[in-house]
Amino acid sequence: MRPESLFPLFSDINALPGIGPRLKTLVERVAGPRIVDLIWTLPTGLIDRRYSPKIADAASGKIATITVMIDSHEVPGTPKRPYRVICSDDSGSMTLAFFNARKAWLEAAYPIGQQRVVSGRVEEFQGRRQITHPDFVATPEEAESLRTVQPVYPLTEGLTQHAMKQAIDASLDRTVDLPEWVDQTLVSQRRWPSWRAALQLAHRPQGPSDLTSESLARSRLAYDELLATQLALLLVRERQRRIKGRSLAGSGELQQRILDSLPFSLTDGQRTALREINADMHAPTRMTRMLQGDVGSGKTVVALLAMATAAEVGGQAALMAPTELLAQQHFETIRRFAEVAGLRVELLTSRKRGSGRKALKAAIEGGDVSIIVGTHALFSEDVVFRDLALVIIDEQHRFGVQQRLALASKGDGVDTLTMTATPIPRTMMLAAYGDIETSKLIDKPVGRKPVDTRAMPMDRLYSVVASVKRRIANGSQVFWICPLINDSDALDLTAATKRHAWLQQEFGSKVALVHGKMKAVEKDAAMQRFINNDAAILVATTIVEVGVDVPNASIMIVEHAERFGLAQLHQLRGRIGRGTRKSFCFLLYDAPLGEMARARIDVLRKTSDGFEIADEDLRLREYGEVLGTQQSGMPAFKLARFPEHSDLLEIARSDARVALDRDPDLLSDRGEALRRLLYLFEREEGVRMILSG
Ligand code: ADP
Ligand code: MG
After folding, report:
1. Closest CA to 449 of 567, 561, 584
2. Counting beta carbons within 10 angstroms of the beta carbon of residue 361, is it exposed (0 to 12), middle (13 to 18) or buried (19 or more)?
3. For ligand 1, which residues put their CB under 6 angstroms from it?
4. 185 with 176: CB under 8 angstroms?
5. Rounded distance, CA 604 to CA 452, Å?
6. For atom 26 of ligand 1, which residue has the closest CA?
7. Which of 24, 56, 355, 361 has the fewest CB atoms nearer than 10 Å to its CB?
8. CB contact at 8 A, 298 and 427
9. Neighbours of 125 (CB within 10 A)
10. Percent of the chain, pLDDT > 70?
């Protein structure tokens, strides 16, 4: 289905000349397995090799390309000292130094009595100019083509700039001119180069300004990606409108019964969200709504009430959670309240095996179960619903599109509600989801207390421990979070297990530990001890494990807070301040605190509004810090950057809409070009929507 003009781009990188199995592995690690992945891998820097001074004028610290005469070779007396090649021009003499060098190679590359051009960073060593390991050496004839500005690409161990550049250049050779898909007026207004020219420019930066997001080439490419995404989103949306949904209109009696049994009344936010969800479900179209709200803002209760409506009209509802623990907790909350309404709630995770699983599956298929809470196990093929009407997905970013669709396809015209506690900045929402209907829970349930947030250097650890001791004596419980180090599980483990052992010396068996490498049963056992207050302190490595509701926990300690993203810290802090006690969050940092880390911590001390924090997070990125897109779970953009390209996003949105209004099936010439764009950025789902009309 993919247009033929794009075939070469989607072939494997080992189709490129000079890419054998070894290089393939390395290049794949940096860019990806296909040629198209290589062309999207833009340089992160550049080296200007045009500076060609005489030896005497060569400024120390700069990259210079110098024409020299090779005078002599000095073989080191001991292997620790460098092999030295002495060379000169009419202004002076300099040294080329080589460690662990192969003599035969050096003699061939630097023949005495001949002229060579060397390029590398010039330094001053013992009063002489020196280049250690020149980046290249060439004859004067060869060198002309090298006296240029060279792009610098991200690398991995064993991969050289040279090899990476060759692979990229070979990939660019596979591109062909494609008909313009961007609106002509916009192209000329912005003076954008064509797609192919933009690619080539982006890969051949001539100066630092060419590396910025604002450069013509990079803006153009980012726009292409944004346009493809927005177009695909609109097509999917359009299609969803056309597929018949079903009207889930209950009498509201079950919802009312549950509401009456709740020990609290709904917040205004919950009430509004519920009204919006009820209206969506009532409508004959399919619901696709997102429910956004901080941890503890009461999303689960809203989910439960929506599920009651589905059940009331005889349908089934499934709630999918990303971890066993969260599924378990949702299950318990929901069962407590659903049973008063006479609804049967069951839990299905991969841990349920054998005859229990068989019986449960039979009950789901037979329609005896109204509400099914579970994990990934829910979309396994052998789980069949009698009449799935509503799917609720918690923390949807942890699931792939495929998984979500797989679950929704288990019913007819299924309504979906996704819930997220990750505060997502508005721009990112639009970029990734288009204008998906959103309900927000902004106000906190009453009784929620503001958390006293304090930042202090790590050397105050002992006073923190003393304070923990006092509060534990008063019956409080403590979350103790250890940091992620280098994304390495092994290292995380050490930090957490060490802290656990250290705290045990002080608090004995009152300390529990959970980390990602534990078996699920061990994890649950540890969590259960904390939930039951058999353990007063829970040492944890990741936020997933603490995605739980323990109102008695009133203290949160985060070690190396400077390594956590703003959104993450906010989520962590949301675990406390739920009970009757005053809550404290101690952010321990490694002094001195960088400007960026300080700004982040200040934001946390100032506000507890997740939406405000999300926007601040994005704003602070302008200072160079990268928002943990993966952690916040947003789909990755290859070329578009936020907030830098936010203005382009708005344009892409309206451009996509206008294009579709004019040509809904993308049949015109521009339509054709836009289809190709969808394929290029692998937004084929959009094309499929048109074809399946
Ligand atoms: P979320 O799923 O958004 O993290 P939950 O729905 O689990 O939040 O709610 C967190 C806690 O707050 C639960 O113990 C829940 O029973 C309680 N809760 C929910 N809504 C309210 C409310 N309106 N008033 C008081 N407590 C509430
Ligand atoms: Mg509906």
Report:
1. 584
2. middle
3. 264, 266-267, 270, 293, 295-301, 421, 445-446, 549
4. no
5. 10
6. 445
7. 355
8. no
9. 14
10. 92
Residues with CB under 5 A from ligand 2 (ion): 245, 281, 415
DSSP 538-583: EEESSSGGG-S--TTEEEEEETTGGGS-HHHHHHHHTTSS-SSS-E
Expressed in angstroms and rounded, the spacing between residue 246 Cα and the centre of ligand 2 is 5
The Cα–Cα gap between 265 and 507 comes to 39
Minimal-distance CA residue to ligand 1 atom 21: 445
Closest to 518 in 3D by CA, of 687, 324, 347, 341: 324
Using 50, 70 and 90 to split pLDDT, how confident is the model at 489?
low
* Torsional class of 90: left (φ above 0), alpha (ψ -120 to 50), beta (otherwise): alpha
User: Is 308 within 8 Å of 255 (Cβ atoms)?
Assistant: yes
Strand partners, 374: 320, 348
CA distance 517 to 493: 8
Q: Give the residue, by CA position, lying nearest to ligand 1 atom 9.
A: 298
Tokens of 628: 């943990």
**Nearest ligand for residue 441 CA:** 1
Q: Which ligand is nearest to the CA of 443?
A: 1
Compute the half-sphere exposure of residue 362: CA atoms within 13 Å on the CB side of its CA.
6
User: 520 vs 51, 304, 323, 496, 524, CA distance in Å?
Assistant: 60, 26, 10, 17, 6
The DSSP secondary structure of 419-478, one letter per residue, reads EE-S---HHHHHHHHSS-EEEEE-SPPTT---EEEEEEEGGGHHHHHHHHHHHHHTT-EE
pLDDT of 168 above 90: yes
User: Which residues contact residue 473 at a Cβ distance below 8 angstroms, ignoring those fewer than 6 apart?
Assistant: none
**Which ligand 1 atom is the nearest neighbour of the CA of 441?**
3
pLDDT at 268 over 60: yes
Whether the pLDDT of residue 484 is over 80: the answer is no
549 C-alpha to ligand 1 centroid (Å): 9
List the end-to-end C-alpha distance of the chain, in Å, as a whole number.
16
CA atoms of 212 and 44, how far apart (whole Å): 9
Q: What is the 3-state secondary structure (H, E, C) of 583-602?
A: EEEEEEECCCCCHHHHHHHH
Mutation pick for ligand 1 pocket among 264, 265, 392, 570 (CB with most ligand atoms within 8 Å): 264
State the pTM of this model.
Answer: 0.70
Considering every ligand atom shown, identify the ligand nearest to the alpha carbon of residue 284 and give its number: 2
CA of 523 to the centre of ligand 1 (A): 24
- What pLDDT is stored for residue 494 in this prediction? 66
Identify the band that residue 628 occupies on the pLDDT scale cut at 50, 70 and 90: very low
Residue 174: closest CA among 2, 11, 3: 11
Rounded distance from Cα 279 to ligand 2 centre (Å): 8
